[in-house]
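Human: Note C-alpha cell order:
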Amino acid sequence: MGNCLSSQSADDLSLLNESDGASLPGEPPPPYREHEQVPVYHPTPSQSRLATQLTEEEQIRIAQRIGLIQHLPKGIYDPGSEPSEKKVKECVICMLDFVYGDPIRFLPCMHIYHMECIDDWLMRSFTCPSCMEPVDAALLSSYEAN
C-alpha cells in the first residue's frame, strides 16, 4: 500500500516557486507586501494610460486639471426641510439619489454632482455632463471678474 501524498510532483513545486514572493518549502513565508497601484489617467477622453506611461507634457496638463478641479466649490448635500420640486435629487453621472451628508461638488453652471463622480468625469472631459458647458472657461472667467 502506497501513500499517495508522500511526494510532491514537479508541477506542485513550480506553482509554489512561480507565485509572487514565494518561499522555498520549509522556509517561513515572506513578509506581507501591499502592491502599490499606479493611477490611471486620461490624457484625452479616448485614451487611458498608467501614470508611469505619460509624457512630461501630459503630466503637466493633468496636474493643471487637478488644480482646477480642486478650486471648484464643494459641500455636503442637504435637501433642506421643505420639499421642493426644483431641488436636484440625483447625480446624473452615477444615477443614484443624493443622500443627506453626501460630499458634492458645484460646477460654475450651477449643476451639482457627487464629488467622486464629477472629479473622475472632469479628469476625462472638462465639460459639464448635463449642459456640456466647458468648466475651465467658466472657472477662468470667474477669476478674471474678481
